[in-house]
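3.2 Worked example (two chains)
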Amino acid sequence: MLLVCTGNICRSAFAERLGRAYLAEALGGEAGAIRIVSAGTRAVVGSAMHPDSARALRGFGAEPGDFRARQLNDAMAAEADLTLTMTRGHRRDVLHGAPRAMARTFTLREAADLLRLVGVDAEPNGDDYVGQARGLVRELAAARARRQSGERDDIRDPIGQPPEVHEEVGELITAALLPVLRRLVSLRPSANGRAPDPAVDPVNESSPGQVGPEGLPDDPVSDRTGESHQA
């Protein structure tokens, strides 16, 4: 799984480290079965996670650790089984360099909503775990015809905004990413119903934000401006 934003220090960095923490809790020693990496279209290469995003990440029970920003290259997207971007603009950037990855490239919020359309009971085709996981991605791509893309598919850039915005962006990322990871984990024969700790799996009935008409939480920063080119 490849996660993409602009600078790879806020949104995709948060998503990578949250996702890794979730998988470590859900799969234990088998967490490596799903590899999560991130990169930026204009990365602040070598930089640590933005301190406000790191603080927000800790609030969800994960740690930034030794994270360092990386620059996106075409090979990353071409090789990824699933690429999740923070905005539609990032998706366009990815596909400009790797056009054959279109059926495997979504915005994060788009993928979460497509998963809702596909349904949790759907059984993807595949002879083994990897095959089923790739089958699920194909089903997400096929479901695109059943929804319309729009601004709700974007997660805004928190760079230059107060810490509260980093927290709100973290809530949006968490609410979209964890259902995708849960579904991938559920395909593992050895998952055995392990339940992640609530500190790492905060998307439950008490999650911040309200569920909107498309099944995604309303964007708590939709009325904020300041989209920039770093996170």
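3.2.1 Second chain
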Amino acid sequence: MTELLDSLAANVRRLRDMHGLSLSQLGERSGVAKGTLFKVERGQTNPNLETLQAIAQTFEVHVTQLLAPPEAPAVEIVLDGEGEEITDEAAVGHVLRRQLVRAGTVEIHSKTFHDGKVQLSVSHGPGAREHVFIRTGSIRLGPLGHQVLVHAGAYVTYAADETHRWQAEGGDCTLWIVHTFPRTTALKEVPPAETD
């Protein structure tokens, strides 16, 4: 089901961009609520057939075209600042690519960590791993109790199945992170943390 929702999300975004429509404009033309369209474009809802037909009619395509995996171009480019935003107080970042592969999922993030700010990342699940390429600056990173200080040009990798910490030192630090998640981790939801 997730692959269908991902295809639907990508196709609706692509068609809306091609037609130069905002979510509000698509909502007005299709009769589908803007909030529903927002969730559709993020793969966060399972729309009914009426909703799919309304969207398809607006773009003058068949419903099956909305659900078909989009054709990948021969060359894909993601420009600086593009991608799904993952910005918080400690860092500015974007997911550059998320790709399902036979063994699991790979995500590529571009991030800038702000000098002195600490970011703690919880476990990404059993078998998860992070591969970090430092582009500029210096950062202390790694699993709690095993952090290392690395500088521009370094490559670091570690198991991301436990809490890990990030802190830029001596200025902001820009880097790329390649997350790898085994198939079992990619398809399971992480249970909520227990509270006392």
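3.3 Remarks
Residues 185-196 have pLDDT under 50 and may be disordered.
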